[in-house]
Amino acid sequence: MPLPKNNLLFGFEPKLTDEQREYVDSIFDNQLTIVNAKSGTGKTTLAVACAKIIGKPLIYVFSPVQEKAMGFRPGTQQAKEKEYLQPLIDALLKINEVPARVLFDEENVDALKAGHIWVYPKSHIFARGTNIEDCTVIIDECQNYTRNELKKLLTRIHDNCTVIMIGHDGQVDLDKPEKSGFAPYIEHFRDEPYAKVLELHVNFRGKLARHADELKW
């Protein structure tokens, strides 16, 4: 079913473009939604808003492309991951959630005991050997995952999950962009009955951001 009737999606619903509405409806209708979209199109914020309405725990997966040796850095997993979570934090703030209250942190004992935690950020580096069940999964910046990294992650996910793959094939930060797994997986899933592939084109940040995104090389 699409976005439930009379649900304002934290105030976003009346402002949705046709493309955004199709994206939101797909998240509720399909097991897998893949969105290939430019910066500033609202893709992460809308995904997090939908995850909140779905009501299952949210696993937010990110790729630390500039730190492949992340596991060797000192500190806890949460401490090493925090610098990559700004898009998630921004999205939570836009739906009136307090990140410190709802983000999993093993040191946040009070929030854990109170049952406020519903968002679990994870690097794909720590995915091997895990099972992902009965939750919403947002895989952000998918263009910065290699084929093997996406395969490692996607093969951990059970069918009782809602999965949202977010990326932009025009902003690959890998040393060898041709190794990105995003475009191949778009085509791999395009015709599957449980999946939908979409694009978002309108950058809402403004003329400066839109014009900057037009530069090609």
Task: Give the key terms.
33% helix, single chain, Rossmann fold, globular, alpha/beta, 217 residues, 6-stranded parallel β-sheet
Q: Can you walk me through this structure?
A:
By secondary structure, the chain is of the alpha/beta class. It has one domain: Rossmann fold (3-Layer(aba) Sandwich), CATH 3.40.50.300. Helices cover 33% and strands 15% of the residues. It has 9 helices and 6 strands; from the N terminus they run αβαβααααββαβαβα. The protein has helices spanning 18-29, 43-54, 77-81, 86-94, 99-102, 109-114, 147-154, 182-189, 207-213; strands at residues 32-37, 58-62, 119-123, 136-139, 162-167, 195-200. Strands 3-2-4-5-1-6 form a 6-stranded parallel β-sheet, sandwiched between helices. The longest helix has 12 residues, at 18-29. The radius of gyration is 17 Å and the shape is globular. 33% of the residues are buried.
Any chance you could write out the topology, listing elements then pairs?
Layout: H1 18-29, E1 32-37, H2 43-54, E2 58-62, H3 77-81, H4 86-94, H5 99-102, H6 109-114, E3 119-123, E4 136-139, H7 147-154, E5 162-167, H8 182-189, E6 195-200, H9 207-213
Parallel strand pairs: 1-5, 1-6, 2-3, 2-4, 4-5
Helix pairs in contact: 1-2, 2-4
Uncertain spans: none
Strand order across the largest sheet:
3-2-4-5-1-6
CATH topology: Rossmann fold
CATH class: Alpha Beta
Oligomeric state of shown chains = single chain
Q: Please compute the radius of gyration using only Cα atoms.
A: 17 Å
- Give me the count of strands: 6
Structural class: alpha/beta
